[in-house]
Amino acid sequence: MTLTLRPFVRLAAAATSVCLTSLAFAAPASVTVDGGWVRWLPGTLPAAGYLAITNTSDQPVDLVGTSSPDYGMTMLHVTRTEGSTSKMEMVDKLTVPAHQKVALEPGHYHLMLEQPTHKIAPGDTIRLELKFSNGETVVAPLPVKPPSATQ
Ligand SMILES: [Cu+2]
């Protein structure tokens, strides 16, 4: 009885150590992206991308870059309203404080998507890659919606 059990126990122990090793190499992601979508506009007008970024770590994390295989140019913008006029400014980075969620939404922070690399229309899904200051990259699929969409 004892003899037949031993090899089994040894195998189980080996399997456990393999699991621990792979966990140690794959650090848990501290940034997640959800609720993303794109407001498509006709002709050569740029599209706008919206999404929410959650930082579950104890340190602030900056969104420092975006790219997409579907658009030649992606930029982080913020809309600033002064009196009755509003204008868009380019932003280098967006800080997500520790344990906070920051939303990119109409009238505020957004992604400007220009120079589509192929025909894109409402109903499509584009792929957006977001790079963060902690070295993490998040890939988010964003559904493309018509100009009338608000969320
Ligand atoms: Cu813009």
UniProtKB/TrEMBL annotation:
Q: Which residues cross the membrane?
A: none
- Return the Pfam families for the record: PCuAC (PF04314)
The source's superkingdom equals Bacteria
Residues annotated as signal peptide: 1-26
Which UniProt keyword terms apply here?
Signal
SUPFAM superfamilies named among the record's database cross-references: DR1885-like metal-binding protein
Keyword Signal, does the record have it?
yes
Q: What is this protein called?
A: Copper chaperone PCu(A)C
InterPro entries recorded: LpqE-like, Lxx211020-like, PCuAC_sf
